[in-house]
Amino acid sequence: MSSYKLDARNMLCPLPVIKTQDKTAELKRGDTLEVICTDPGALNDIPAWCRINGHEVLDTRETANEVIITLLVS
User: Fold this and answer.
1) Predicted pLDDT at 51
2) What was the pLDDT predicted at 35?
3) Which CATH number among 1.10.150.20, 3.30.110.40, 2.40.10.340, 3.30.70.20 corresponds to the domain 3-72?
4) How many beta carbons lie within 10 A of that of residue 18, not counting itself?
5) How far apart are alpha carbons 33 and 72 in whole angstroms?
6) What phi and psi, each to the nearest 5 degrees, are found at residue 56?
7) What does each C-alpha distance from 44 to 15, 30, 68 come to in angstroms?
8) Which amino acids are annotated catalytic?
C-alpha cells in the first residue's frame, strides 16, 4: 500500500472530482489518496463519488482555506 497526494487547489467543480477519478485509476487497491481542494463543494462531491465507485473515505478535514479528503482506493 502506498500513499499519494493530489493537489486540486484553485479548481472549481467538477474538476476536483474528475482529477480524483483520474488519479484513482492509476492507483492500486489499498492505496490511499489525499485530495487537497479549495472548492468547498468538494467536501460533498468527492465523498459522494467515492460511495458510487466503491472507495472509502477515511478522513475529511477543513482548514480556513482548504478541504482535505483522504480516501482508500478499492
Assistant:
1) 98
2) 98
3) 3.30.110.40
4) 13
5) 7
6) -110, 130
7) 14, 22, 12
8) 13
Cβ pair 16, 60 in contact under 8 A: no
pLDDT given for residue 8 in this prediction: 98
CA separation for the pair 57, 47 (Å, rounded): 6
Whats the size of the chain, residue-wise? 74
**45 C-beta neighbours (distance < 10 Å), count:** 19
State whether residue 38 is helix, strand or coil: coil
5-56 confidence digits (pLDDT tens) = 999 999 999 999 999 999 999 999 999 999 999 999 999 999 999 999 999 9
pTM of the model: 0.95
